[in-house]
Design goal:
This protein is of the alpha+beta class. It has helices at about 130-175, 175-210, 215-235, 265-280, 410-470, and strands at about 1-5, 10, 15-20, 20-25, 35-40, 50-55, 60, 70-75, 85, 95-105, 110-120, 245-250, 255-260, 285, 290-295, 300-305, 305-310, 315-325, 325-335, 345, 350-355, 365, 375-385, 390-400. It has a six-stranded mixed sheet with strand order 2-11-10-5-6-7, with no helix packed on it. A six-stranded mixed sheet has the order 15-24-23-18-19-20, with no helix packed on it. The N and C termini lie far apart (about 140 Å).
Length: about 475
Amino acid sequence: MDVIVASNINALNGTTVKILCTFTSCYKMDTTKFAMNWTYQESRNDTEEMFMTYYRKKGMVPLRSDRFGERVMFAGNLDKNDLSITLSDVQLEDEGLYHCYVRNPPDRIQGHGLIQLNVVTELPPPRDSTIAVAIGASVGGALALLILSMVVVKCLRRHRKQELISEEKMEEEGKLDAEGVAEEGTKSLYLLALSLERLILWGIYQWCIVEYQSFDYYNVHKGFIFDTIRQLRQTTTRTDRLGVMASVDSTGSSVSGRLRSGDLLHAGLAVTLLLGVWSVGGLEVSTGKVSSIEAMNGSTVLLPCTYSSCIGIKNLYFNWHYNDNGTMYKLCEAVIPIEGVEPRVSVFHERVEFVGSSKSNNISILLWNITFEDEGEYICFARNPKEKNRNHSAIFTLIVVDQMKEVDNTLTVIIVSVLGGVIGLVIIVMVIKALVVHFLLKDDEKNKECLVSSSGNDNTENGLSGAKADNKGTPKA
């Protein structure tokens, strides 16, 4: 016979904890011969106190105990060899050793399971490897940036060499002809940029009117677009001296102006703003970055929910529902008249409390003393009449557990550390290689200079001696 138990259990003071105990045996359980006892021992040197036993006719029955009272309940299933119990409203005095004794004749071995229950006032914080991950990511990012910088510097050097070569060729072929050809191409681009700019603004106007039937939404984005383009034009006007002169002759009269380098950038900015405005979905409801949470049985949990609207709210209606296998139960509801005004919330559940505030666009609620029956989906819904009754909802999933699981991020830390170390090693090797090549090139240049200077000196000396020889007159007899 084998008795299966958890050797250590941590329980939060004031919560309900389940103490597991199951057994396996080669013989089927005979209710007329089966025997089982649960005992408590404050320490190994103290005597054991029995607080639950098995009776043939009554089954598992808790015994009278001054320590536990009526806080112990049988939570197992004899047909599945499960002898587990639950202890509600755990106190600090409940900490100690719990023994699970099992006898299942004709099995001659008596099973025994020992559980150490530890009662804590607060749960230990989970292991947080955020700092290690952040350091590893920062090191990797810095090294990657260094590699990128080295590549960019190398590319710029090549580009400068190519520019010098191209400039020399342009001077030989004639620079004026090339500029004349460039003028004709930039004139059409200038007119196209201005036309595209106005067409995009007109499209934004039409879309805002059709979608929201309101000039407020258009005015907000129109002002932003015009202000941005105006500031950009003022900036690029300062660089007009570097522009190219363009002439337009469509009606017989000549008009002179400058093709600014930012005109195409204006059109690109307008396209980006149009895409941004087009992607705005009006009212949005969010439960945060995490859509689910695990909470201990008997604790209090926050169900977060916030809303946002790009044109403001008026008589915003919101509510919370609980989805119980398809049956929706309303927990609370309210109407926010305008921004900054706190709503009057109607609460329909005794353990629900509204803790949000319209000043921070927060419509979160608290759920007190949760139980396993509270597990499921909670839906946060909102509707804004100012945006043609546009509505949105977000789902938050609550998972109720007996005890919190510790997350071990050791593997992640090891992977990030190894990756950062490998990248750092590669960078060091590249830097050493670059330095070695740099010094070798310098040595080669010095050697070349020494060779050139020495060969020049030799030639000079040879020439002087020859000249002296030529200038010498024939010796007189």
